[in-house]
Amino acid sequence: MQKSYTFNYLKIYFWQGSSIVLNLLSMFIVIPRLADNPSIYGIYVVCISANIFLSYADIGFAGAGYKFAAESFAQNNLAEEIKIIGFIGFILLSFLVIFASAVFFLALNPSMLIKNIHTPLEADIASQLLLILALFSPVCIFQRILDIIYGIRLEQYIIQQSMILASALKILSVLYFFKTNYYDIVGYYVFCNLANLTVVMVNLFAAKVKYHYNFLTLLKSFNFSLKIFHRTKALAFGSLFSTIMFILYYELDAFAIAKLLGVDCVAIYAIGFTIMSFLRNLFGVFYTPFLARFNHCIGMNDIDGLRNLYNNILALTLPFVIFIIFTLCLLMAPLIYSWVGPFYEKSIILAQLLILSYIYSFFSYPASFLIIAQERIKMLYLASAISPLVYWIGIAFTINYLGLMSFALFKFIAISISSLIYFFITLNFLNLSISGFIKKIIRPLIVPLGFLILALWFLNTLMPMTKHPLNLLIVVLSGGLIVSISLFLYSLCSNQFRDYTHELIRKVSA
């Protein structure tokens, strides 16, 4: 009999949910203070955006290694798991050297990265931020290793607990680094990196104690293994291609806008992009725990269990995705005004288009997991290539007419086209027709979604429109209340959602 991971899911959701609350506080407290100086904030956004490339330093092998490490864990083969993770660590280290060298060079020449640096102070700040990024970049190796070790065991909540404490300290540090007539963004960035380093050290020790993980053996496994390379290369190269396409689609906006339109436009775009990134992290919380279970099912050849899991994911996450996105779109104007003020009025429509890019998440996330778990390499190439191709072609033809708007508009158009592939993968795997999908999945959504739209349409006329923390709290709580009522209505309309939530409650209370 297979082990039940229900409580692991609940622990992950609880602790990650707590982390999300802190991230919200961070957005509400940190961003307004940083945004008070749009030029320096734009520089900060560009510099920390370079940090994103550390997430892809494994060139696809971490994703492939995660799959096979999860299968090794399911088969209780710790030695093979350590070999796979050591191989990933070697790949990360090799490319980290290249990344750090490039960032050091840019730190000496920040104008190569950012257009229209207005003063020597801004140039100095850009150089210092890039130098800090290079110095702390090795931390990412151990962050990725810990993500795999805890993730394949569905015990990410252990990492999340220490991350919550670090996030709280980062929020409190704002009171020190940003005061009246005092704006120390460099000191704040150093403190954030030190907090991340502390989290890594604590969780390395916890893994050694809890799992009896031999990190000396792991470090000795930091080498190139031809056997593991051949085992992982097909999926890794597919993941690498997917990663490159994702970078082209998602991660280059700030750099392109900085070079083509200037740092002030980066600041305006960054507000909407911050909200979109928050959604990305939020939906990652919903779906990432299931990735390990997909790989467990494949490792144990349990296709029926995988199909049942897929169905449950759709029923459980659909209302959260749709209700949250519609709520943010309909309350975007009062949210922006109460959060960062009227200077960022142009961010409203940009933010609405950007977050609509995630409207398909309820089926695109599980479909992408399925592609990886089943090692459908050609499909991985196809699904990955469409979005950046449509995105940058669209921008090239419209930026002279639409300006900043072209980035947000084609973000939505590109993902809408590529999501068609994930939609048909979902239909095929679940043996559903389009009409069957609408009847089973979409129809229960109609009544609660109708209520949500009408309620928010009315509330939108009553919301405060001036920058103040209390006004922001009113907007957020009002949206949260409407989402909660809509979820209750959805539970009345969807038997599958109601049965699944009742089963969760029964297990928790048992």
What does this protein structure show overall?
The chain is mainly alpha-helical. It folds into two domains: 1-253, no CATH class; 261-510, no CATH class. 82% of the residues lie in helices and 1% in strands. It has 22 helices and two strands. It has helices spanning 6-35, 38-49, 61-74, 78-108, 120-136, 139-151, 157-177, 185-211, 215-220, 226-251, 253-260, 263-299, 303-330, 332-339, 347-356, 361-373, 377-402, 405-430, 434-442, 446-460, 469-493, 495-509; strands spanning 178-179, 182-183. It has a two-stranded antiparallel sheet with strand order 1-2. A hairpin with a 2-residue loop joins β1 (178-179) and β2 (182-183). α15 runs parallel beside α18 (405-430). The protein is globular.
Main attributes of the structure:
single chain; 510 residues; mainly alpha; 2 domains; two-stranded antiparallel ribbon; 22 helices
Question: How is the secondary structure organized here?
Answer:
Elements: H1 6-35, H2 38-49, H3 61-74, H4 78-108, H5 120-136, H6 139-151, H7 157-177, E1 178-179, E2 182-183, H8 185-211, H9 215-220, H10 226-251, H11 253-260, H12 263-299, H13 303-330, H14 332-339, H15 347-356, H16 361-373, H17 377-402, H18 405-430, H19 434-442, H20 446-460, H21 469-493, H22 495-509
Helix pairs in contact: 1-7, 1-12, 2-5, 2-12, 3-4, 3-10, 3-12, 4-5, 4-6, 5-8, 6-8, 7-8, 10-17, 11-12, 12-13, 12-15, 12-16, 13-15, 13-16, 13-20, 13-21, 14-21, 15-18, 16-18, 17-18, 20-21, 21-22
Please indicate the count of domains: 2
β-sheet strand percentage: under 5%
Overall 3D form: globular
Query: How many DSSP-defined strands?
Result: 2
User: Can you write the helix and strand succession as a string?
Assistant: HHHHHHHEEHHHHHHHHHHHHHHH
Low-confidence stretches: none
Strand line-up in the sheet with most strands = 1-2
The secondary structure category is mainly alpha
Task: Report the total helices.
Answer: 22
Instruction: State mean pLDDT (0 to 100 scale).
Output: 81
- Rg, nearest Å: 23 Å
Question: Can you summarize the main beta sheet?
Answer: 2 strands, antiparallel
- Portion of residues in helices? over 70%
Cα-to-Cα separation, first versus last residue: 19 Å
